Amino acid sequence: MSSPRNLCFTVSSLALMIISLTVILKKWHCGLREKDFGDAAPSMDLTPGRKRLLQQLRERQQEIVPFYITSQQELSEMKPKFSSVDGEHTKRNKTLWNAKTSGSDIGCNDLSGMTVVDFLGAGYTKTVLKVILPQGVSVALKSVNDQGTDMRSCLEDFKDPRGCQELVSFKLRKEIVLLQRLQHPNIVKLRGQCQDSALAGGVMAVLEQGTPVQMIQLLQRPWEERFRVCLGLVRLLHYLSNSPLGSVALLDFQPRQFVMVSGELKLTDLDDANAGEPACQAHSDCLLRFPLRNFTALCSPHGICEGLNEMRNLYNAYRYFFIYLLPHQTPAALKPLVDQIMNATGELKQSINKTLEVFEDILHVYKSGMYLRNMPISIIKVSATSAERIGTAGNMEYKCWLSYSHQGCVLSVYNATEAALICNSHPQCTSFSVSGQKTWTGRLLASFRSGFSHLVPDVSSTVYVRRSKASAAVL
Ligand SMILES: Nc1ncnc2c1ncn2[C@@H]1O[C@H](COP(=O)(O)OP(=O)(O)O)[C@@H](O)[C@H]1O
Ligand SMILES: *[C@@H]1O[C@H](CO)[C@@H](O)[C@H](O)[C@H]1NC(C)=O
Ligand SMILES: *[C@@H]1O[C@H](CO)[C@@H](O)[C@H](O)[C@H]1NC(C)=O
Ligand SMILES: *[C@@H]1O[C@H](CO)[C@@H](O)[C@H](O)[C@H]1NC(C)=O
Ligand SMILES: *[C@@H]1O[C@H](CO)[C@@H](O)[C@H](O)[C@H]1NC(C)=O
Ligand SMILES: *[C@@H]1O[C@H](CO)[C@@H](O)[C@H](O)[C@H]1NC(C)=O
Ligand SMILES: [Mg+2]
């Protein structure tokens, strides 16, 4: 297998590729020429700075070319669509640009009537704003960060604001095409885009809105929520290892490149993604360096570092996410599986496929309550003195570690038996109720209490009273 980049050169119908690129590339070529040659004397001499800028622009262009069409198969699928009508190929058919996204895309027209309502974040390259579109939809809008490190260093080097705008915009263009080609529940959804330079903001990407990943906050969330983040990440890395663009590495892999959308982790920063394994001549070319560990992949007979991208992603997932989020407060029954994951990924002893398998196993065991079968349920003192259709009032809430609620002790359970086990292990617990409310895994939320003054009718939950302590309550 060769990398998508190489595949690109083997494409027989070069013309087709050129059509698909007309939309973006012609535009900046013209823009650039106007600017670079227009005001200068009609001579051929460019300053060395200009030459380097042009060279860099060319390189950035080359970098994204392979993402538009990457395989013979895709080419042949597209062919009838775009060459059937006579002269069709000469049109700048913008729908080609959007070939992989849905028809209800948000475009330049929608963006001209937007209202900026908030600042969501910024990095070296891009700024993200919360905007409301004319239709009332709220989205995240990415554009080039004019004050960012990328822009500043370009201006220092070339002192050419328009050229630098173009250069940095290529990163956002790359991100847009990657968001079109790589679609997964754990990658932020591209809802539209505008690459019309006539519009003030230049290149813009319209994304579903999330919130920044805050490790400190995540650490205080229940294990189930932290596991969800890690599982999402593993599913994402599995997808990236076998993606339509080949094996994809995230070169700038840090929590700030992700956002949370309704409890789910989603990758948002893709401009530093790299498709295809690196080339090599010897095994020593396939060294993967981290501050605390080095690894080496094998250089294949075809001259590529086999599996290097996957190794890089998986170890980064371990050092930035798993270490912090997985081990602490793991339910006892799941601890052996979680330990296995920690050991195996910390040493890269296990592929992403195997890692995903173990993660899905953990999810299954957790969801199905299988682990309760080995519990000494017979010793439970709190066997349901169930008061159906009755709730409690005047509850005395107590707080517990990693509760779903800040006010009281709310934990997820498989069923009332597991809740009884938990109540039994908390000295303060005298009663608990199981509501119909479920967590993302389908488990039930149970509220644990230290006492109550009386019972009141309630249709939404079932109350259980701990036997040995129930006598203290006024029923
Ligand atoms: N869809 C989004 N919703 C909310 N915030 C976002 C979204 N996408 C990015 N952000 C925030 O904006 C910051 C910058 O975006 P990013 O794509 O990482 O830019 P850069 O390439 O400059 O690092 C991110 O760190 C994140 O906090
Ligand atoms: C662009 O191509 C699509 C798909 O082939 C076609 O439906 C559409 O009419 C074309 N639009 C223009 C402006 O040519
Ligand atoms: C990793 O490799 C580099 C270069 O070969 C070396 O300098 C460094 O000491 C190694 N680090 C570890 C932790 O082995
Ligand atoms: C994980 O590693 C630790 C320390 O190296 C070891 O004691 C433990 O047995 C290992 N656990 C598994 C499941 O491999
Ligand atoms: C990993 O899984 C994917 C899809 O499930 C499969 O296509 C691929 O061949 C597997 N890789 C290995 C090395 O088994
Ligand atoms: C809870 O699930 C366990 C394990 O499946 C089972 O043994 C127990 O009877 C269940 N308890 C209730 C109240 O359904
Ligand atoms: Mg970023």
Describe this structure in words.
Its EC number is 2.7.10.2. GO terms for molecular function: ATP binding; non-membrane spanning protein tyrosine kinase activity. One of its GO terms (cellular component) is Golgi apparatus. With 475 residues, the protein is an alpha+beta fold. The chain folds into three domains: 4-207, Phosphorylase Kinase, domain 1 (2-Layer Sandwich); 214-372, Orthogonal Bundle (Transferase(Phosphotransferase), domain 1), CATH 1.10.510.10; 378-472, Hepatocyte Growth Factor, CATH 3.50.4.10. Helix content is 40%, strand content 19%. It has 15 helices and 20 strands. The protein has a five-stranded antiparallel β-sheet with strand order 1-2-3-5-4, covered by helices on one side. It has a four-stranded antiparallel β-sheet with strand order 16-18-17-20. Helix 2 runs antiparallel to helix 3 (48-68), helix 3 runs parallel beside helix 8 (161-181) and helix 12 packs antiparallel against helix 13 (352-368). The radius of gyration is 28 Å and the shape is globular. The termini are far apart. The chain binds adenosine-5'-diphosphate, 2-acetamido-2-deoxy-beta-D-glucopyranose (5 copies) and magnesium ion.
